[in-house]
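Work Package 4 report. The design task specified in the project plan requires that, given a folded chain encoded as structure tokens, an amino acid be chosen for each position. We show below one input record used in the internal validation round.
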């Protein structure tokens, strides 16, 4: 029970004079505050040491606390309306006791000015002594201080009811106070302040949630408008309410021609859409080919229902992916990419360099190419190099070995099929190599082994640039560059009626004959060195030297399997090598000379000769490395350090170029 003013007044005088508190008279929170004020050295007779901010400082502070002020002001006005004319003022401070805002009658405002109870003044307990705002902030709980309970004498005729304002994180961010004449003190005043503070705190939480929701909505909206997938949002009646820019591009329709229309008017004849509208059942990756539009819409569509927390259907989301995007992903992860450049082709002989010259010229246009050569001469390497030097380099490179596909499956491999086209067909069907290669190159290896029935279908696809999947009637436009390869004489096959003449002339626009290895034996030492370096690094086998007779034997051999056979021979030798040395006897028997050196003869081989071969090999490697290092340094200077341009000029990947820069310790 609160004591009367005279009793408290005597207790205050006794404490100020002798620093002794009668705890039977003075409330505990007041006694604690008085003791803190005395320890802080506050003069109880001169009103403490209240500081006042200048206008600039106050403006900055109010800016920092603009959210608190904006939310608190309506509640301050409500409280003031209850007590208007009664001599009370409503005051808002920050968490340090600095006054931010005041509302009051002119009379009370004038009295407040006399004690510096104005915006910008600091009413923390250390400055103003025991008071509503300062003490509530220290205790972090509501307090009511009246008359002589204030530590400083100049405010003994005031009553203050204050409560701290707590933010969403539990930290005090300010205080609200009602101040008036001490004779008007009423316990209900503190109740009004506490209720207002609770309302302010709740509104702060609501605003924070709204801000968080706004942030989430902005992020979702940003994703919606920037994602590469097409997205349409439907209401419960199937009406399109939103469409993102990607969907506009895929459908070739502006949002004005889609929003407000029923989904079945936008995407026609898609039965799965009815399922999501009728039952909310989702579906995924339904292939759609709509030829009603000039752009021949071809895409994969997925649908997901939108439901509230009670599971009630609110609408749906339709996701659209253009088929070309899916094909690029399939080609990427299926390895349908060309790795080789013309610079990867090893050899300086006249025959090989002439083939490279013609191939480089052919790469500049989209004409069909026929690569002729024995097995193992590098026909696919040439095909990949042509693709990477062409304008289609950023498109897929799809290869199909016609000799490895059963004749009954050749059509489905080339043109694809729809679900149910034949026994064993995959659910949903599959695109063929023509579709997967759209925008790039289709390499048909061993074209001479294709049956005449499929030759006619291939000819029609090349001429019309359109295909139809097996079991379907929808026409699919395709844009591919055809490169064929054969180890047979197609002209003879035409004469024998084993290959269609019209297809031969369609494919044989540019013919490139790849020489067998026996016709450019001068390249064998270089090829041997290349395979030795590449395979030893891959197998982590270190070779210091090899017998010179090895190269002599390799050069004399006829190589019916060409460069592929040479590569296999080198790998075999490395697998059986001993003591970091390649011996003549490590060669396969068919490659060795008829007279094989005996073990005794091997032991009599001049070690100096072996060592000199090793040193010569090391010297050649060092010269190649030095030349390559110099080339990289010059190109970096030429292209201003642009890694992409240098890698493109050298015909290697960026990762390979970075590895060489580190290896040669080149400073960028």
């Amino acid at each position: 029970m609160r004591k009367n003013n005279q009793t408290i007044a005597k207790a205050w005088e006794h404490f100020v004079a002798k620093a002794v508190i009668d705890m039977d008279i003075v409330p505990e929170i007041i006694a604690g505050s008085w003791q803190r004020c005395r320890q802080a050295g506050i003069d109880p007779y001169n009103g403490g040491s209240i500081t006042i901010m200048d206008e600039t400082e106050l403006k900055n502070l109010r800016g920092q606390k603009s959210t608190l002020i904006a939310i608190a002001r309506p509640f301050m006005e409500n409280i003031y309306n209850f007590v208007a004319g009664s001599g009370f003022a409503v005051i808002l401070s920050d968490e340090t006791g600095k006054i931010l805002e005041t509302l009051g009658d002119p009379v009370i405002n004038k009295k407040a000015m006399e004690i510096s109870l104005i915006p910008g003044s600091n009413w923390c307990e250390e400055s103003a002594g025991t008071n509503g705002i300062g003490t509530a902030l220290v205790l972090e709980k509501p307090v009511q201080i009246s008359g002589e309970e204030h530590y400083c004498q100049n405010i003994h005729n005031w009553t203050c009811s204050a409560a701290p304002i707590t933010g969403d994180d539990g930290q005090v961010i300010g205080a609200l106070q009602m101040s008036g004449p001490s004779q008007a003190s009423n316990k209900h005043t503190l109740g009004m302040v506490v209720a207002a503070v609770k309302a302010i705190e709740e509104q702060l939480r609501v605003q924070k949630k709204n801000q968080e929701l706004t942030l989430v909505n902005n992020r979702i909206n940003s994703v919606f408008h920037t994602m590469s997938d097409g997205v349409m949002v439907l209401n419960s009646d199937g009406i399109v309410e939103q469409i993102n820019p990607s969907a506009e591009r895929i459908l070739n329709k502006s949002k004005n021609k889609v929003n407000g229309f029923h989904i079945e008017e936008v995407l026609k004849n898609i039965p799965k859409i009815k399922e999501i509208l009728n039952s909310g059942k989702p579906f995924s990756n339904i292939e759609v080919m709509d030829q009603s539009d000039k752009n021949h819409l071809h895409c994969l569509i997925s649908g997901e229902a939108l439901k509230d927390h009670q599971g009630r259907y609110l609408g749906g989301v339709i996701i659209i992916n253009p088929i070309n995007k899916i094909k690029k992903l399939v080609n990427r992860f299926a390895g349908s990419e060309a790795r080789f450049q013309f610079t990867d082709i090893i050899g300086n002989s006249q025959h090989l360099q002439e083939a490279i010259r013609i191939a480089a010229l052919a790469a500049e246009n989209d004409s069909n190419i026929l690569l002729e050569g024995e097995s193992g001469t590098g026909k696919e390497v040439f095909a990949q190099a042509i693709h990477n030097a062409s304008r289609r380099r950023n498109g897929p490179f799809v290869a199909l070995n016609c000799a490895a596909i059963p004749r009954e499956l050749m059509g489905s491999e080339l043109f694809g099929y729809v679900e149910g086209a034949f026994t064993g067909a995959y659910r949903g069907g599959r695109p063929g190599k023509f579709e997967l290669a759209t925008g790039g190159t289709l390499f048909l290896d061993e074209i001479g082994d294709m049956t005449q029935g499929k030759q006619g279908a291939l000819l029609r696809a090349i001429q019309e640039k359109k295909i139809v999947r097996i079991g379907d009637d929808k026409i699919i436009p395709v844009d591919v560059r055809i490169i064929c390869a054969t180890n047979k004489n197609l002209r003879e096959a035409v004469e024998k009626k084993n290959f269609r003449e019209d297809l031969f002339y369609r494919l044989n626009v540019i013919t490139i004959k790849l020489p067998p290895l026996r016709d450019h034996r001068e390249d064998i030492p270089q090829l041997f060195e290349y395979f030795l370096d590449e395979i030893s690094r891959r197998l982590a086998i270190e070779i210091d030297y090899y017998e010179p007779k090895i190269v002599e034997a390799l050069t004399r051999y006829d190589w019916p399997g060409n460069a592929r056979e040479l590569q296999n021979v080198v790998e075999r030798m490395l697998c059986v090598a001993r003591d970091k040395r390649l011996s003549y006897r490590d060669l396969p028997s068919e490659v060795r000379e008829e007279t094989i050196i005996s073990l005794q003869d091997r032991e009599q081989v001049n070690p100096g000769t072996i060592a000199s071969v090793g040193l010569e090999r090391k010297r050649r490697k060092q010269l190649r490395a030095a030349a390559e290092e110099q080339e990289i340094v010059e190109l970096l200077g030429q292209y201003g350090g642009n890694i992409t341009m240098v890698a493109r000029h050298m015909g290697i990947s960026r990762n390979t170029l970075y590895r060489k820069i580190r290896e040669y310790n080149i400073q960028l």
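The two ends are 82 Å apart (CA to CA). Validation will be extended to a larger panel in the next phase.
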